[in-house]
Design a protein that fits this description.
single chain; alpha/beta; Aconitase, domain 4; seven-stranded mixed β-sheet; 7 strands; globular
Length: about 170
């Protein structure tokens, strides 16, 4: 998962979790495919129908503000969004992205990106390539990249527990 490529879906500042995953579905939709089908429906009704695997959501500041509902990160993950790039994130949304295995990358120059343009993200080297140039973002700790590579926090912890269990069995 070190290289992510896709089209940009560009949004503004203060995109809150109620428009990423509409609040009216909080307690009624839990199926991953149904979650993906309503991603961003209150902000961009065409998103869920048109997003392709690897596409990248790009936004301004304070992305994921509002409630702490984890469904906002997970619906984007289930819609096969490759990453979210924003000037800044709500701390809770940022952590929910890590838990979901969805890269959330901070970059100040998001105004340089245009909806529909193709970009590539190199997680390992902290670079975003566009037709306009190359952008650097703060490198991610190897522990966070490992969570992304394992598909999220729960699969990552399961993998670690399995490895520990195998080590115990091996040493008995």
């Amino acid at each position: 998962m070190n290289l992510i490529s896709g089209r940009v879906w560009k949004y503004g500042n203060d995109i809150n979790t109620d428009v990423i995953f509409p609040g009216k579905y909080t307690y009624t939709i839990t199926d991953p495919q149904e979650m993906a089908a309503i991603a961003l429906e209150d902000l961009d009704p065409d998103f869920a129908k048109s997003v392709r695997p690897g596409d990248i959501v790009v936004a301004g500041s304070n992305f994921g503000c509002g409630s702490s509902r984890e469904q906002a990160a997970f619906c984007l993950k289930h819609a096969h969004v490759g990453a979210v790039v924003a000037e800044s994130f709500s701390r809770l949304f940022f952590r929910n992205c890590i838990n979901a295995g969805l890269p959330a990358l901070t970059l100040k120059q998001t105004n340089d990106f245009q909806s529909g343009e193709e970009i590539s993200i190199d997680l390992q080297n902290g670079k975003i390539s566009t037709q306009h140039g190359l952008y650097a973002f703060p490198p991610l700790p190897i522990e966070i990249v490992a969570i992304f590579n394992d598909g999220g926090l729960i699969p990552h912890v399961r993998k670690q527990l399995d490895a520990q269990q195998n080590e115990v069995v091996k040493n008995e």
